[in-house]
């Protein structure tokens, strides 16, 4: 087996959350700042260092208000979440092959648990690393290194699957195989390809073939 450990980003990779993220970003920036910011600009930082840093890039003087407004709008929307198409089947296949699976996400653990309360996917994963588990965040390698440590795995044994440029950068920095997925709905394929991942895939079936 080439990669006995498969680590996943969460938003836009395992769960189909791109639309609710952008909806809540639009709501927060319109409510707090009175601005209509294009989705392209709002989405550019999604998947990186977490919500606080995303809002700091938009307006460093109104971060707390933006974060609070975002979360108030976003958390109820989790009841509408669906998994990314085909993800349960892919995770089942990987588990049946005897691989260890993990989530490494910019979400807080509390918000991951909220998503899992609506989507019964938690049992697939041996470890979940959230933004509150490390001091540094993607694209820094620390979250991935923390997950590998929890699993007792070496970088050469692992692949990181994600839908953002920050996922690819974090994987490279951690020395793990980087697979970018195009189904997240926020970052276009060309932005992912510019980071030169080891593979770019468009479906979970292609992902399984790449592993």
Structure characteristics:
211 residues, alpha/beta, six-stranded parallel sheet, 10 helices, 6 strands, globular
Task: Characterise the protein shown here.
The chain is α/β, with parallel strands linked by helices and 211 residues long. It is 45% helix and 12% strand. The protein contains 10 helices and 6 strands. Strands 3-2-1-4-5-6 form a 6-stranded parallel beta sheet, sandwiched between helices. Strand 2, helix 6 (109-118) and strand 3 (127-129) form a beta-alpha-beta unit. Helix 3 (51-58) crosses helix 4. It is globular and about 55 Å long. The model has no long low-confidence stretch (mean pLDDT 93).
Q: Could you state the order of secondary-structure elements as H and E? A: EHHHHHEHEHEHEHEH
Helical run tally: 10
Taking the alpha carbons of the first and last residues, their distance comes to 9 Å
Biggest beta sheet summary: 6 strands, parallel
By DSSP, the count of extended strands is 6
Strand order of the largest sheet: 3-2-1-4-5-6
Low-confidence stretches: none
Q: What secondary-structure arrangement, pairings included, does this model have?
A:
Layout: E1 5-8, H1 18-33, H2 39-43, H3 51-58, H4 63-77, H5 87-96, E2 100-104, H6 109-118, E3 127-129, H7 142-151, E4 158-162, H8 165-174, E5 177-181, H9 189-193, E6 199-201, H10 204-210
Parallel strand pairs: 1-2, 1-4, 2-3, 4-5, 5-6
Helix pairs in contact: 1-4, 3-4, 5-10
Summarize the structure.
The chain is α/β, with parallel strands linked by helices. The chain has helices at residues 18-33, 39-43, 51-58, 63-77, 87-96, 109-118, 142-151, 165-174, 189-193, 204-210, and strands spanning 5-8, 100-104, 127-129, 158-162, 177-181, 199-201.
